[in-house]
User: What shape does this take?
Amino acid sequence: MKRLICCLLLLVWLDSTAVKGQVVDTDQPYSYEMLKDDIIKLHQTYKNEIEVKKIGTSHFGRGIYAVKLGSGSRNIVIIGTHHGREWMTSMLVMKKLEMYADAYHKREDVGGIPTDILNDVSIWFIPMLNPDGVTIQQHDVHLFPEKHQKRLVRMNNGSRHFERWKANGLGVDLNRQYPAGWKDLKRKPNRPSYKFYKGKKPVQAAEVKALIEFIRKINPEIAAAYHSAGQEIFWSYYNGKNTKRDKKIAVKISNLTGYKLAKPPKQATGGGFTDWFITEFHRPALTIEISPLVGEKSPPLSVFAEEWNRNQFVGLTLANEAKNLSHN
Ligand SMILES: [Zn+2]
Assistant: This one.
């Protein structure tokens, strides 16, 4: 009898933590291990709402996960952490997934948007594209082969302090790897580095290869990639053909977040995920930089609450926009 009561209490507790939306912990740096645990927990809690897919593995064998929320045949995609030190964007994307899944389960609105929009337009969340980079940045270099640890220090200009790490595990900058304007990107640095190395050729990194293949499969209406920092939204690329349409969506997200809109540059640098998405799909794509500028490190946890407030409705707002886009 005692055991039964214990069991019941545990069930009630498990249920209430899920209901309150307490799976994703935002009080400590978000690691790859936490991500994996949270995905399992959310999947268990919202079996009918969520689908989990491993879309590939990083160079050093860590999983790259995509989580689908909703039953809509059309979809949008939201991506976090191209860059190691930007793990706060994984936290943000996961918290969004948790809040939306809970509301969808209860058929509630989120920020005035009915979640039954997810029956028309699903959201694919790819919370952490660069798990190796995150692991290095969080000083878990001992998890890499010994020989490679020395290389990592060399790529980090001889320093064992990895807080500034942006690249993947091989010292390639994942947001300089996409086949859109890649050739025009600077060659400096011309070897693997903690940041900015564009690689020997586009789509050389396993992580980028996995993402591109997956995006081509799901064919999203809109794509958003979260980065840090700067509280700014980039939304255009020089050969984009639908500037007016795309700007309208960018303005909406700018109003929602209070982030400034970047002016379309005269000479776009290219090589980034959204540059490629706009080039290949001719559909809206946003690069959203959270947090005030902080220099070469992760934004401090103290900024998360405000960044969350600014961004919590972005996913469903984009799903709503996607519903109104005409197919092209
Ligand atoms: Zn970034």
Observations:
- The chain has a mean pLDDT of 93.
